[in-house]
Amino acid sequence: MGIREDQKTLRELATQVAEIAELAVQQEKIEMWKSLNRLDPVRPMVLVNHIPWHEMQVNDELTPRSSEPFLRRLETNLRRTLYSWRHLPTDRVVETFVRIPKAIHGTAENLGIVPVEEQIKADPAGGISSHSYTDQFENEDDLEKIKTPEVFLDEKETARREEMARDALNGILDVRMEGHCPRFTPWDRIAEWRGAEKALMDLAVRPDFMHRLMRRVTDAFLNRLDSLETKGLLGCDQAIVKNSGAFTDELPADGFTPDKPRAHDIWSSGMAQILGSVSPEMHDEFEIEYAMEWYGRFGLNYYGCCEPLHDRIGYVARLPNVRKISVSPWAEQVQAAEEIGARFVFSRKPNPAFLAGDSWNPERVRADLLETRRLCEHHGCPLEFILQDLSTVAYQPQRLWQWCEIAMEVAGRDIDDI
User: Fold this and answer.
1) How far apart are CA 194 and CA 203, in angstroms?
2) Per-residue pLDDT averaged across 76-93, rounded?
């Protein structure tokens, strides 16, 4: 296909998306996300963002036809939007515009250090991999490897992307060029640079070295944030933060100007996944104390991912402007609900393993979601179900379709009627 054929395909898809985006239900969902995010929920919200797309094909709905690489990516996103609307009923909002990232260099979180690793793929077609990392931080001199990348906008490439998108969509959907919305993930980086076992061991045997490492990494993250903010390269008006709905009427802050967003105009997020293996006190010492500097810069924040946080909510609550706390499949839900109460959004991550096994049990899914719903009702916790880390559905996409239907039923009905 040539560019004209690519454009024809994109316009056909965009027309379908635009019709869906104009439905009243989209604004209704936005308002419900806003209610949840100000801790006054209408009902629990549901979202799925980590999808094994290589397993989801049905009737060739997801196969892109465009030949030009940028347009092919745009087409893929439109096809996934339509697929999600048809088959994955959740609280995802279909917008009247497409979000195109600006070409911003220096935003990679690895701070210029390439992990030295061995990988084994679980599925050659896609999905997760196992990793074995080589330690690149054996002595004090190695701390000098950590650099703050130079952040700059490639204006020519950004303009090219915008022009191609606008030409292809022909006004059917608007085009919004987006800046960068950074996260605070030093421990993910440290695990990749050193290997989890070596990093965790040094918390006990070389704590002073690990503090110097965290100081260096934290400073690099903060310096890059300064550069993004100064150069007007931060994003704003987010739809998603850490796979969760980010619509809010609390942001941006007073004094906001669209051409130069500030950190306190937007959401951020972060995690320290490998510290789920250490004591709450050590988590506080080696993560929270540093993270406070980051989260204090932002308007609202989401904290956590796969690590169980139920026994350290008190420490997490010290982080400035935290609004949502992850409750992973490995967390003790009762303790988490008691600690979270009405203070934060209880961001429940249902177990993705329910969809991955040899057999599929919808009633097990329903019982699991109902347990969370009843627990949060009892403790007054604003609740969202965020299905993530879904690496496989055993090549049976209907499992995910049905999971979404069950989740929306559990979230949408009065608890006494379920």
Assistant:
1) 12
2) 98
The residue type at 275:
L
The whole-number pLDDT of residue 4 equals 85
Q: Which of 10, 61, 17 is nearest to 165 (CA)?
A: 10
Domain extents for the chain? 3-417
Residues facing 97 on adjacent strands: 174
For the chain, the helix, strand and coil percentages under 3-state DSSP, each to the nearest 5:
45, 15, 40
Residue count of the chain: 418
Given its phi and psi angles, is residue 54 left (phi above 0), alpha (psi -120 to 50 degrees) or beta? alpha
Is 30 strand, coil or helix? helix
Report the C-alpha gap between 194 and 201 in whole angstroms: 11
What CATH class has 3-417?
alpha beta
200/206 Cα distance (integer angstroms)? 10
In angstroms, the Cα distances linking 268 to 106, 252, 320, 397 are: 18, 13, 11, 31
Residue 391, CA distances (Å) to 105, 123, 125, 240, 357 in order: 29, 9, 11, 20, 11
For 179-200, write each residue's pLDDT tens digit: 999 999 999 999 999 999 999 9
Q: How confident is the model at residue 221 (pLDDT cuts 50, 70, 90)?
A: very high
Q: Distance (Å, rounded) from C-alpha 355 to C-alpha 352?
A: 6
pLDDT band, residue 211 (cuts 50/70/90): very high
**Largest separation between any pair of C-alpha atoms in the chain:** 63
